[in-house]
Each structure stands twice: as structure tokens, then as C-alpha cells.
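ARCHIVE CARD
Drawer: 12
Card no.: 0347
Subject: one protein chain, sequence and derived structure
Cross-reference: see card 0346
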Amino acid sequence: MIRIDSATRDHNELLDPSHWVSCNWGGDEMRDCKGCEDCQEDDYLRGEAHWRCYGERQVEDSRYGISVMADEEDLVEYLATVGPDMDNCVLVEVEGDYSDEDGHDAHLGELLILPAKIVSVRPVTDEFIAAVFAKHDEIHGA
């Protein structure tokens, strides 16, 4: 499994469960709290105890796991679809177990995993960038 990430990031953070949170790029999409501890009087009715809405019934739509694509070809297609931002980035190949949650872009092939191992970190090459832009032109028209 593979993802694109900032070249300046400490990629070992990907192995730390406290960093296994996936949000939309804007980070501000909200969803119903599903009966968090602030909205339920009875413990057995509470949904996601780790989310708190403080009575607003809305929480940020964060999901458990890091986002990856199944392989480099899927990553190329994903970036070509959503708009590539490859400045100062690297490709990070990881192994791990699947999260129980779906990614925000699951409909585009995004997977959420709980990484156990970093297999490789390598530069984004000119060939990779060319493949993304060629796929972008194929999808959106040149």
C-alpha cells in the first residue's frame, strides 16, 4: 500500500496510533455525533465515547486510520482525479491491517489502514509526476 506525504515529515509518526486520524483536506467537514457522551444520559445509549460534541450534535468527521491506495497505479489515478499537489513530497509504502472505517474518498479507492511497517520512502520522480498529469489529461481532457 502506498501514499504521498510531505518530504519533511517524520514518517515514523505513521506507526504511532496517536497519528492514525484521517480528515478531509479542509479538516472542517462535520457529521452527527451519533449520541456521544454529551447527548446521552444513559451510558449504554452512547455511541462514540471518544467524540464529544458539547451539546452541538456535530463533530469533525475524522476517521481512524491513515489513508493509502492499494498500489502506485491507483495512487496515480487518485491524484489525477482530485488534483495533484506533489511539491516537496515523497512516496511512502507501508504495510498494515485495514481499519474498520472507510476513508472519505473510498469511492475513489482510498483505503484506511493501521500501519505496522514502513516498507520504503522514496522521492516523487519526474516519471511519476508525468504519469499523474497524463492520467489527469485522460480523465479531464487535455
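Annotation on reverse: The longest helix spans residues 126-140. The longest strand covers residues 111-123.
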